[in-house]
Every structure is written in structure tokens, then in C-alpha cells.
Design brief:
281 residues, Rossmann fold, seven-stranded mixed sheet, four-stranded parallel sheet, 11 strands, 41% helix
């Protein structure tokens, strides 16, 4: 890979909402001196209910515009839906490496003692064929229980905006998992869900292995960029990019805490299928 241009941001982490911040946290832990920008397509959030062809076109348009603005040398698609649908197009057309996310089936199989694993994710993720392929490749001797939870995505968004979920709400979401006594490992299969990991652990009636894809993504980023600086020096502040205004003060504070001191907006002039035009303000 070519050296990054001076002043360029080596990594752009992208999601439809704030879930990708869990990937940011994992990269920060692994490579604290690596500069990053974060972008979330909040004007089109959530991605899970959008037409697939429209979504692929939109993700390409937004990412292409962001690359022009940031000069990023690598893109992380920190969204399972966008990774599944848009990665082939992005890798074919973009000039920089693109890293996607998949449910952490392999690490879950490595830690499970009972060989019974729960996948907690969105409905789109738990039903996609690639989950079956991951099980065949990395966890053929395990039993996978699939649990879909769209509300957990919204709860994570609200938590970052300063409204943490009620414990009884999280207990209700975990109840079907806890009803299966053989499960000892829970895969947080949406990047939003690790943002609620501590809260979920606090209400769970049993002790589980909680796994997600953050560490694996961070390792892949380090490999692609040839990162060998593990010093504790924090990178210079990055920019948080949005596609709609952000007015929640708690979210802005959370972004600042994670190293994004300013926020800029890409505005969509037309969100209609097949006709996506973006400009920055």
C-alpha cells in the first residue's frame, strides 16, 4: 500500500448510526496513535429496512464523497448490513482498502465450552446465508441459536444521546437467550450492541462469554496499514461526519470523548433511488 499523504486521515470508520463507535473504541485500544474520522449516515438510519440496490448505491455515493473530503487511506464499514451488501462494489471501485464486519462466529466457537452459542443481531443479519457459511467454516461442532432485536439498535442510539435503557427492558430482550440453559456465549452481532455490553452484563442472570468483531477488525486495520506503533500517545482529534444535523448534546460529548472534536455534515440533495447527489456544508 502506498504511504498516506501528509495530513491525510488513515482510517475512516463508517456506519448508518453510532454503532460503529464500538469499532472506533476497539481500534483506539489497539492503535491509540492512529488518526481516525468517523461518519454516520444518520439521514438514512436504519439501513436494515432499505431496498438493497438503493442501499448499495447510497453507501458508495456517501463513501466516495467522504474520501474526497477526508483523504482517508482505509475505510472500515462498521455495519453488518452494509458490509454484506456493499463490500464487493466498494472493493471493486474504491482506490483504498475496505474492511467489513461479520458476526464473531469464529471467536465465539473458540471460547464456548458448551458448544452452544447465541447470535444476538438484527433480523437481517440473523437470516443472511453468510451466517450459515461462517458456522460451517468455523463452528461446525456448535449449535447456533439466533435472536433478532431491532429495539436494541435504537436503545444504543438513545444511550449515546444521554438516555440509557431501563434494566427491565434489557432483561426482556435477553429473556429468550436465558431460557436456553445450554448457551454460554453471546455474539453481539450488530456494531451497536457492544455499546450496551456493560448494561447487558449487569442484568444477565448468568455469566456468559460476550464476543464481538471489534478486536478482529482492529487487527485487520493494523495489518493493512502496517501499523507497529503501540504507544499510548493519542492521535490528533478527528472529524465526525454526518448526513443529517446532530443536536443531542450527549452524543456530541460522546463523540468528543472518542476523539472527534468537530462535526461536519454531508447533505443529500436527493435521496431517491438511483439518484443520489451529495455536497458538504
Amino acid at each position: 500500500m502506498k504511504p498516506l499523504a501528509q495530513g491525510a486521515c488513515p482510517v475512516l470508520v463508517f456506519d448508518s448510526g453510532v454503532g460503529g463507535l464500538s469499532i472506533v473504541q476497539a481500534i483506539r485500544r489497539a492503535w491509540p496513535s492512529l488518526p481516525m474520522d468517523y461518519a454516520f449516515d444518520n439521514a438514512a438510519f436504519p439501513y436494515g429496512n432499505k431496498p438493497e440496490d438503493w442501499l448499495v448505491d447510497r453507501v458508495e455515493a456517501v463513501i466516495t464523497s467522504l474520501l474526497d473530503k477526508t483523504g482517508a487511506g482505509l475505510v472500515v464499514i462498521a455495519c453488518n448490513t452494509a458490509s454484506t451488501l456493499a463490500l464487493p462494489r466498494l472493493r471493486e471501485r474504491l482506490r483504498v482498502p475496505v474492511v467489513g464486519v461479520v458476526p464473531a462466529i469464529k471467536p465465539a466457537a473458540q471460547v464456548s465450552q458448551t458448544r452452544s452459542i447465541a447470535l444476538l443481531a438484527t433480523a437481517g443479519t440473523v437470516t443472511r446465508p453468510y451466517v450459515d457459511q461462517l458456522m460451517q467454516d468455523f463452528a461446525a461442532d456448535c449449535r447456533l441459536y439466533r435472536f433478532a432485536s431491532a429495539p436494541l439498535v435504537d436503545l444504543a442510539e438513545q444511550a449515546l444521546a444521554g438516555h440509557p435503557p431501563a434494566p427491565e427492558t434489557l432483561r426482556h430482550i435477553l429473556a429468550p437467550i436465558e431460557a436456553q440453559s445450554d448457551i454460554d456465549t453471546i455474539i453481539l452481532g450488530c456494531t451497536h450492541f457492544p455499546l450496551l455490553k456493560t448494561a447487558l452484563q449487569a442484568v444477565a442472570e448468568r455469566t456468559y462469554h460476550w464476543v464481538d468483531s471489534g478486536a478482529a477488525v482492529a487487527r485487520r486495520v493494523g495489518d493493512l496499514l502496517g501499523v507497529d506503533d503501540v504507544s499510548g500517545n493519542r492521535a490528533a482529534a478527528g472529524v465526525a461526519w454526518t448526513t443529517a444535523p446532530v443536536q443531542q448534546i450527549h452524543l456530541m460529548e460522546a463523540l468528543a470523548t472518542l476523539g472527534f472534536a468537530s462535526c461536519r455534515q454531508l447533505t443529500a440533495l436527493d435521496f431517491n433511488e438511483g439518484d443520489i447527489v451529495l455536497s458538504s456544508v
